[in-house]
Design brief:
Layout (H helix, E strand, L loop, with lengths): L2 H24 L19 E10 L7 E3 L5 E6 L6 E2 L4 E5 L2 H26 L3 H34 L6 H30 L3 H26 L2 E3 L4 E6 L6 E2 L4 E3 L4 E3 L2 E4 L4 E9 L14 E4 L6 E9 L4 E2 L14 E10 L11 E7 L1
Antiparallel strand pairs: 1-12, 1-17, 2-11, 3-5, 3-8, 4-7, 5-6, 7-11, 9-10, 12-16, 13-14, 13-17, 14-16, 15-16
Helix pairs in contact: 2-5, 3-4
Length: 361
C-alpha cells in the first residue's frame, strides 16, 4: 500500500468522524419534563407574591423562645412536634451556681429573722435576773459602806482623835461610790426591762426585708434556669441540645454561623397562616382589605388552596424572603399581607415553607 493511498484513507476517516460529531452536536435535544407543574394564575387579573407559611396567630409570627439566663443545657424535656401547655418545662440549664447563691440568701434572711425575733423577745428572763442580782449586790455593798461611814462619823463626833481624818474621808467617799453604783445598777435594770430599742427593731426589720427580697429575687432567677412554654402550642423547632450553651441571644448555629432561638413555638391550631410579600410597585393595584381574595399554590404539587384574608401589616420593609432566582432584586421593598387557611390532611404543609400566592385584583 502506497503512502498516498494511506493518506487518503486517514483523511476519509477523519472526515467521517467530523461529520458524525457535527451531527451529534447539532441534533436537537428534547426538553426534559418539568419536575412539577408550574404555578398558573387562577384569576383573570392577579398580583403575584411569594409567601411563607407560618403559624396562625392573632399578631406576630411564631413565638421564638429565648432563655433569660446563660449556661449549658443539662436536660431536654420535650421534642420537636410535641404539643405543650403554658408553663410546661421545655429544657433545663445548669443552675448549680445560682442554686448555691439562692441557698446562701435564704440562710442570711433566716439569720436576720432570728435576730429580729430576739430583739422583740427582750428582755430575756436570764438577763433580767442578772440585772436584778447586780442591783441587790450594789445595794448590799452600799448598806455595808454606809454603816462603816456612820460608825466613823459617830466616833469622830465623840472624840475627834479616835478616827483619822483620812479614814473618815475614805469612808464617806466609798459610801458615795456605792450609792452611785446602786443608781447605775438600777438604771441597768430599767434598761433591761425596757427591752430592745425601737430603732434597733426597725433597723433589723429593714435588714430582714432587704435579705428576704434578695432571696426572693435569687429564687425567681433560679426558676428561670428551667425554660417553660409561654403559651399552649406545638414545638416547631428545638435548636437547643443537651450540652449546648444557650444565652438570651439564642443558640449559635455552626451551619449558618448565626444565633437562633433556643426553640420555636407555634399555636398548633387547625389553621395555618401565609405571610406573602407584595412588591411596592404593585401596592396601588392591591384591593381594599375586605375585598382581598387570594389563592395559594403549593410548589411541587397541583394543590390550590383558597386563602382567607386576615390583615395587612401596614409597614413596608426590605424583602428578606429570597427565592434565589438570578433576576431577583434584593433591594426590593415589600408589604406583608397575611392570610390563613384550614389545613388539609391530604396536603403536607409546614411552617417555613415557601409558596406562590396570587391575589385577585
Amino acid at each position: 500500500m502506497t503512502p498516498g493511498r494511506n493518506f487518503l484513507i486517514v483523511a476519509a476517516a477523519g472526515l467521517a468522524l467530523a461529520l458524525i460529531v457535527a451531527f451529534l452536536l447539532n441534533r436537537p435535544n428534547r426538553p426534559q419534563p418539568p419536575a412539577f407543574q408550574p404555578a398558573a394564575n387562577p384569576y383573570a387579573q392577579a398580583i403575584y407574591a411569594e409567601g411563607i407559611i407560618e403559624s396562625d396567630q392573632a399578631s406576630g409570627e411564631n413565638v421564638n423562645i429565648l432563655p433569660e439566663v446563660s449556661g449549658p443545657v443539662v436536660a431536654m424535656l420535650v421534642r420537636e412536634g410535641d404539643r405543650v401547655h403554658a408553663g410546661q418545662p421545655l429544657f433545663a440549664i445548669d443552675d448549680s451556681v445560682q442554686r448555691a447563691t439562692t441557698e446562701q440568701d435564704r440562710l442570711q434572711a433566716e439569720a436576720a429573722l432570728a435576730t429580729l425575733d430576739e430583739l422583740k423577745a427582750e428582755p430575756r428572763r436570764e438577763t433580767l435576773a442578772v440585772a436584778v442580782a447586780q442591783l441587790d449586790q450594789a445595794q448590799a455593798n452600799l448598806t455595808t459602806l454606809a454603816r462603816q461611814r456612820d460608825k466613823l462619823q459617830a466616833s469622830a463626833a465623840l472624840d475627834p482623835r479616835s478616827v483619822s481624818r483620812n479614814a473618815l474621808d475614805s469612808a464617806i467617799d466609798a459610801a458615795k461610790a456605792a450609792q452611785t453604783a446602786v443608781e447605775v445598777a438600777q438604771r441597768q435594770l430599767d434598761l433591761t426591762k425596757a427591752g430592745a430599742w425601737t430603732y434597733d427593731i426597725q433597723n433589723q426589720q429593714a435588714q430582714f426585708a432587704a435579705l428576704s427580697h434578695a432571696y426572693d429575687s435569687a429564687k425567681a432567677l433560679l426558676d428561670k434556669f428551667v425554660v417553660k412554654a409561654p403559651a399552649d402550642g406545638v414545638i416547631l423547632a428545638m435548636n437547643a441540645a443537651s450540652g449546648a450553651y444557650v444565652s438570651p441571644q439564642g443558640v449559635y448555629d455552626s451551619y449558618t454561623q448565626a444565633n437562633e432561638p433556643a426553640a420555636v413555638l407555634g399555636p398548633g391550631s387547625g389553621t395555618l397562616a401565609v405571610r406573602c410579600y407584595v412588591d411596592e410597585i404593585l401596592l396601588n393595584r392591591l384591593p381594599k382589605g375586605g375585598n382581598i381574595k387570594a389563592e395559594m399554590i403549593v410548589r411541587g404539587s397541583a394543590a390550590h388552596v383558597p386563602l382567607q384574608f386576615v390583615r395587612i401589616q401596614p409597614y413596608v420593609t426590605p424583602k428578606i424572603e429570597l427565592s434565589d432566582e438570578r433576576q431577583e432584586r434584593v433591594d426590593l421593598r415589600v408589604l406583608p399581607v397575611i392570610f390563613h387557611f384550614k389545613t388539609d390532611p391530604k396536603i403536607k404543609l409546614y411552617p417555613g415553607q415557601l409558596v406562590d400566592v396570587y391575589v385577585s385584583e
